[in-house]
Amino acid sequence: SVAFVKENHTLSVEMLIEGMLLPSGGDAAYALAAEGGYALGGKDISAEKAVELFIDEMNRYAKKLGMTGSNFASPDGFYDPQNYSTVEDMTLLTLAAAKNEIIMKYASLPTAAVTYASGHTNTWRNTNRMLHEDDEFYSPYVTGLKTGTLDGNSCLVCTFTIKGREYVAGVFT
Length: 173
Hints:
- By secondary structure, this protein is of the alpha+beta class.
- The chain has helices at residues 13-21, 26-41, 47-64, 87-98, 101-107; strands at residues 111-115, 121-125, 142-150, 153-162, 165-172.
């Protein structure tokens, strides 16, 4: 999926996070990874090297969270034999993400009309159908998080609140 981020668009880091979370924008994930990699390695490196440095940092952070059955090979989670995880690790990642106000701010939005810093506009629709009141899968208890799809396989990790208690659920096919 894409957020339709183009080369002449200027977005803030927060907008790129929003672009990753609502429409599952792989382009937003790569742009954010490149910028993060430049911050790690300097502006004089290639975009590919910047993304590589960012992925290395993703893997270090995953280990810090206790994710022992995961390895990330791309910032967008697209298929790569070196890109893998476990249900247990996705739970750890979801619990960490649920503590982040910016992530949850955008992971909970059904849609957003956005205006980039460059003046370009777009409307993003969250791929988590449980957030859309007009969808058959809507649940008023769901508070966010993230879907994934690849080659006909789908997954969902979501957060929800019932009677003041917070929960995490995952579905992996």
